[in-house]
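Suppose you are handed a protein chain with no further information: no name, no annotation, nothing but its sequence. What can you learn? This example shows the usual starting point.
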Amino acid sequence: LHHWGSSLLVVVLVLHMVQVFVYGAYKRPREVTWMVGVVLLLVTLGFALTGYLLPWDNRAYWGTVVTTEIAGQAPLLGPYIKRMMGAEHGVGALAYARFYALHTVVLPVTALLLVGLHLYLVRRHGVTPAAADARPGRPFFPRQALKDTVAMFAAFVTLFVLAAAVPAPLDGIADPTEDGYTPRPEWYFLFLFQALKFFEGPLEPVGSVVLPTVAVVALLAVPFLDRSGVKRVAQRTFAIGLVVLCLAGWASLTLAAVATTPPGLGGTNGGAVDGWATAAPVDLAGLGYFRAARCAGCHDLAGESPKEGPTLAGLVPQKSQRWLADHVKGALDREQFDAVELFLRRLTPEHARVLLEAPADIVAGAQVFVANNCSACHTINGMGGQLGPALNGVGRRRTGEAIARMIADPESQAPGTMMPPFDLSGRERDALIGYLLSLPGR
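A reasonable first move is to predict its three-dimensional structure. Written in structure tokens, the prediction is:
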């Protein structure tokens, strides 16, 4: 009931504000009534943001991580806001306690006070401008009271049906080390999530802070921007057109966000993982260099199609490095040779059959990873350094665009990082990102 009721509350509130806007019921002397309604909308969204964390599952945790990072981008006040949210050093017990207090104490009291003020203003100034409806005024009881009762009954029936028929999503307990979830906000915030993709690097605060602030200020200023006389609803074509345009933009961005959600992400990471996806980068890169050097012309790896040369799985560990170097002399440079040697020395028939199923673009991405010595700082499938974050499941935390920005300009994404920028060609960058996005969570 709580989960579906929160969504239904947003729907009803937005529909009410659309109706008030279309009717022009914000005009004098109802300017303050409208402005209080806008603040109530913000308080309702505040309920949604603070309540999102309270189930304390992975979905809530990672979604709140994104929310606090966006809040931290506010010019000048960003670090202070993040500290006030209790998330200066990450989302944990402190952030949970503060979100809980806001959700159950501060926001309810604020909402009750604002609703009381809103109802007082509605009773004082009336519901709609008199000139918009030529019919004589009617008492609230019994006709309007009956309409309100029927509307509330329909809303509660909808709520109970949803609660009984569609379980509220609840995942495993929050685990900051679990990479099996893609951070996604509630459906009514998806448009903002999608809009952020149009603003990269230094422009990101424009999409996350500036534009939402401008939208809120514009809503508050509506009564002062429209000072025209009261008209019938049928004559308010500009207002109706503006509402249709805004709803179309919201729907388009929301659908785009849904359509671009990576398949299989945003839920538990319990699906089957291809064997090659759990291989070390050096194994996949070694396979790529093996193919590039045309070794497959004389050798097969696991006896899949016997050729003139010997099958290599299980053979190379019995030979010296000098022996192997003589066989590939001139075909590989030093780094490539090291990767091939390690690949062949670790090779077993079973492992070879698994690696041979890896797509060519994944192999190419692993080659870029190895060639740029990324494993010195990052771990993949249990192999690599510890200076940087482990990369398993990075596709469930970051988009391809975000990874590309991190590769090209790490300082802009993580100030103070020791990671250097990498000047990769477009093909190398795309191959590396494709490989990273394919990595399973661990």
